Fold:
Amino acid sequence: MERRCVQIMIEEIMNNFKSELAKKLRKNIDLKWDIDKKGVVCGWCKLTDPEDIYSVAELIAGFKGRVMTISTLNTPSVLADNPLGDTSNDTSVTEKPISVVINYHFYFNRINLTVSITLPDDKRTVKSITPVLISADWHEREMRELFNIKLQDHPNPKRLFLDKNMHMTDHTMIPLSEAMNGASTSTLWEKIMKSNRKEEDTGE
Structure:
């Protein structure tokens, strides 16, 4: 009975949040919810206008929420526009312009919400949400240093951990997911095996 009451309460919060967000942005929004068998609630929202992320942060603050983390990725535009699309046979993917996808991971009232925005490669600028959600501070500063993203109106734009003489440029960082994928792992293993065979052939 208690679990059912909690579920009803969370569903009301989900509906209320979606309604309030639509009112705040004054547009239809792409927001999907999912509840797993254990009752964990996850939401995914993709914003068409990157400037709307500040309004989302204001609403999260109103729900007494916080930023859990922010993940950033340099992504071919074809994947940024259609993250779930099948591009495995598209040989032109690597030739597409790069976009910057920023995923903001929020938590409020037992609800996990990921909100995504996409920045064009030639405009790596986004409004800071730290003024309304202080929990975004370190995450935004990390994003600024590692992905060369300019933060508008950040209250404390000091370097977080990189030496002042280090200047990251676009595409300097390689995401761990890309570095550890099957292709790179296989390539590395092939190099090791080739090296071993060479040593055996030379008797070393």
Summary: The chain has a mean pLDDT of 79. Residues 2-25 form the longest helix (24 residues). Residues 2-128 form a domain with the Beta Polymerase; domain 2 fold (CATH 3.30.460). The two ends are 72 Å apart (CA to CA).
